[in-house]
Design brief:
Strand content: 15-25%
Distance between the termini: 24 Å
CATH class of the largest domain: Alpha Beta
CATH superfamily of the largest domain: Zn peptidases
Number of domains: 2
Helix content: 25-40%
CATH architecture of the largest domain: 3-Layer(aba) Sandwich
CATH topology of the largest domain: Aminopeptidase
C-alpha cells in the first residue's frame, strides 16, 4: 500500500489538468467568476503552474494544473510536495487509462522521502485512486523504485555487503524467491576470485548474492548488479572530492534489486536470476595491488592496472557465472565510469549492447517510459588497449580516452557473443531535485528495463 494514495472517496478537492491548447475551451465552459479569477491571477496553463479556484466561504474549490501533452508521467509529480496536506481527486475525463496510470505513477514517485535519519517537517498531499489507473502496476513500480532509492541513499556505515545481502534476502522472503549468499573466503573455494580480491581488504567481508525465482522451464532472464558498497579507490586512492558520493557505488545492484521485485510482483513467465557481487573497496595491508594478476572465474587472467577500476573486476566473475547458464537475456547495471557521465551527463545512462534487436527494444522502451537510454559503441578496435604483457588482459587502458567504451569491452570478454547482453553505465543519482525525482539515489533505467522485459517475455 502507498501512503499517499487512498481508496477513500470522501470529500476531496478536484484537480483538473489542462494544456495550453485546451485552456481556451475550458474557460468557455467555466463560470464568469472563475474566468475573472484566473485572468486576475495570471494563470495561462503553463506546464507545472497551478490555478487555485476559490469556493464559498473562502475554501479551495478546484485546482487547475498546467500540463504538457507529451509528458504525462511528471505532470502531477510536483503536487504531493506543493499542495497542502489533504485529500485530492483527479478530474481528467479526457485522459485514457495509460495516461492516467503514468500521471498517478508520477504522483506516487513524488511522495518519496528518505527519512531514516531525519523526519520530514510536513506530510504529502494524498490522491484518491482514479478508477482508470492501473493500481497494481503503479504500486509495484513505486515500491521497486523506492527500494532502490532507499538502498542507494543509505550511508555505507549502514549499507555494507552484509546489509545489501539482507535486503536481497528480505525481498526473497516476501516474494517467494530463493536467495543464497557466498561470503568471505568461501568465494575463493567457489572460484569467485576477483570478487574476493577486491573486497578482502575490508573488515566487512565480500559476498556474492544469488537470487532465483520462477519456473526452471521459463525463458532465463539474468540480472547482474555492481554492489560496491563504498569505493575508496583501493591503493589507487581517490581524492576527497571523488570519494564523497561513493556510498552510491552500489547503485547498479540497488536498481536491479528493485527491478527484480517488480518483475516478481508482475508474475512474468520468466526464470529470473539476480547476481550481486557485493564488496567494499578498502585500503589495508592485504589490499590487492597494481600489477597483481588474478585468475577470473572464466579462466582468463587479468592484470590490475588500477585498483580504482574495481567494478568491472567484480562484475566479470558474476557475468561469467551468468553466461554459464546460456540465458535468453543478461542485463548488467553499474555505476562504472566517470567517462560515461562526461559523455552523456548525469541523467542519461549509457547503453552498450551486443544484440541489435535488444538494443532497439531497450531504446524504444526508454522513450515510451520517459526513462531514456543512449546507445554507445562496443568499438572493437579499442580492444587492443586492454592487452597485457603478462596476462590475458588488463582491467584498464593506458589511454585516457573512451573510458566507458573500454570498460564495456572488458565486460564483453566474459559474455559469449551469442548471448543477448546489455550493459548499463548509470549515475544512479539525482544531483538536484525535480518533480518526482528528489535529490539523491535514483533507479535510473528501471522502468525502461521492466517495460522491455514485460513486452519481450510477458
Amino acid at each position: 500500500m502507498l501512503a499517499h494514495l487512498t481508496s477513500d472517496k470522501g470529500e476531496a478537492i478536484p484537480i483538473t489538468p489542462v494544456t495550453r491548447d485546451g485552456f481556451a475551451a475550458w474557460l468557455v465552459a467555466a463560470g464568469e467568476a472563475d474566468r475573472n479569477w484566473l485572468k486576475a491571477t495570471g494563470f495561462a496553463a503553463e506546464p507545472g503552474k497551478l490555478g487555485l479556484l476559490p469556493g464559498p466561504g473562502g475554501r479551495l474549490a478546484r485546482i487547475l494544473v498546467g500540463v504538457a501533452p507529451d509528458d504525462p508521467l511528471w505532470s502531477l509529480a510536483a503536487l504531493p510536495e506543493t499542495l497542502p496536506e489533504g485529500r485530492y481527486a483527479l478530474d481528467a475525463a479526457s485522459w485514457d487509462a495509460a495516461t492516467t496510470t503514468k500521471a498517478v505513477l508520477g504522483w506516487a514517485l513524488g511522495t518519496y522521502a528518505f527519512t531514516r535519519y531525519k523526519e520530514r517537517k510536513r506530510g504529502f498531499a494524498t490522491l484518491v485512486w482514479p478508477e482508470r489507473a492501473d493500481r497494481a502496476e503503479i504500486e509495484r513500480l513505486t515500491l521497486g523504485i523506492f527500494l532502490a532509492r532507499d538502498l542507494i541513499n543509505t550511508p555505507a556505515e549502514d549499507m555494507g555487503p552484509a546489509e545489501l545481502a539482507a535486503a536481497a534476502k528480505a525481498l526473497a522472503e516476501r516474494s517467494g524467491a530463493a536467495c543464497s549468499v557466498i561470503v568471505g573466503d568461501d568465494l575463493l573455494a567457489m572460484n569467485y576470485r576477483t570478487v574476493h580480491a577486491v573486497g578482502r581488504a575490508s573488515v566487512r567481508p565480500p559476498c556474492l548474492i544469488d537470487l532465483r525465482w520462477g519456473s526452471e522451464t521459463a525463458p532465463k532472464v539474468t540480472l547482474v548488479g555492481k554492489g560496491v558498497c563504498f569505493d575508496s579507490g583501493g591503493l589507487d586512492l581517490k581524492p576527497a572530492a571523488g570519494m564523497k558520493l561513493m556510498k552510491k557505488d552500489m547503485g547498479g545492484a540497488a536498481i536491479l534489486l528493485g527491478l527484480a521485485g517488480v518483475l516478481i510482483d508482475a508474475k512474468l513467465p520468466i526464470r529470473l536470476r539476480l547476481l550481486i557481487p557485493a564488496v567494499e573497496n578498502a585500503v589495508s595491508a592485504n589490499a590487492f595491488r597494481p600489477m597483481d594478476v588474478i585468475r577470473t572465474r572464466s579462466g582468463k587472467t587479468v592484470e590490475i592496472g588500477n585498483t580504482d577500476a574495481e567494478g568491472r573486476l567484480i562484475l566479470c566473475d558474476a557475468l561469467a557465472e551468468a553466461d554459464s547458464e546460456k540465458p535468453d537475456l543478461i542485463v548488467d547495471a553499474a555505476t562504472l565510469t566517470g567517462a560515461a557521465r562526461v559523455a552523456l551527463g548525469p541523467d542519461l545512462p549509457a547503453l552498450f549492447c551486443n544484440d541489435e534487436a535488444l538494443a532497439e527494444g531497450l531504446l524504444s522502451a526508454g522513450v515510451a517510459e520517459a526513462d531514456p537510454l543512449w546507445r554507445m559503441p562496443l568499438w572493437q578496435p579499442y580492444r587492443k588497449l586492454l592487452d597485457s604483457k603478462v596476462a590475458d588482459l588488463n582491467n584498464v587502458a593506458d589511454s585516457p580516452f573512451a573510458g566507458s567504451v573500454i570498460a564495456a569491452l572488458y565486460l564483453a570478454e566474459f559474455v559469449a557473443p551469442t548471448t543477448p547482453w546489455a550493459h548499463l553505465d548509470v549515475m544512479a543519482w539525482n544531483g538536484s531535485a525535480r518533480p518526482g525525482r528528489p535529490e539523491g539515489g535514483e533507479a535510473m533505467a528501471l522502468r525502461a528495463l521492466y517495460a522491455h522485459i514485460k513486452k519481450r517475455f510477458g
